[in-house]
Write a structure and sequence with these properties.
The protein is mainly α and about 190 residues long. The protein has helices at about 1-45, 50-65, 80-95, 100-125, 135-145, 150-170. It is about 70% helix and about 0% strand. The longest helix has about 40 residues, at about 1-45. It is elongated and about 110 Å long.
Amino acid sequence: MSEMRQRARRMWANTRAHARKAWLSGLLIFLGVLLIAAGFYANSQPAWMVKPTVRAYNMGIDAYHEPPGLLPASDERPSEYPIERARAYWEQASQDTDEGLRALTFYNLGTFLAREAYASSLAYGLLDSPRVDMNEAIVRLSEAIRLDPDNESAKYNLEVLDRMATVKGEQEGGPGEGYSPGAIEKGY
């Protein structure tokens, strides 16, 4: 009988060891699934996880791509045109400490202001002062280049604006080539 008891005790000990291993394996699998689910949730970036400046930048992009026409008022914005709302959101995003986000924001603002300056100079003639000052666009693009010297699009847009300012200066009686009213340091 004692041999049967010893065999039973060994079987019982083996069963408990297998149960502990199974329980530990189950716990590890559960924790792994939980971590994967948390990763997917965090990757979806719910609004509370995104910095306000990043949210403002993305809202500016969304507003810029809205069709023309008056946008309805929201909790934080009055009714306005999409480009006005985009500019306001980008102005908020430009306050961020991340240089990459600031470079993108200044590039978008500078390009937006350059388009407005160009459109208003065409509408009002180069001799009249446009509604949007080209100098502000030059400042924003220069800041984008200072923050991200590899941004070829910003360099190109700044070069085009400098040429526009030169032409405008010549037509206003400026000194000619290289003249830019209110010229600024380009930063590169």
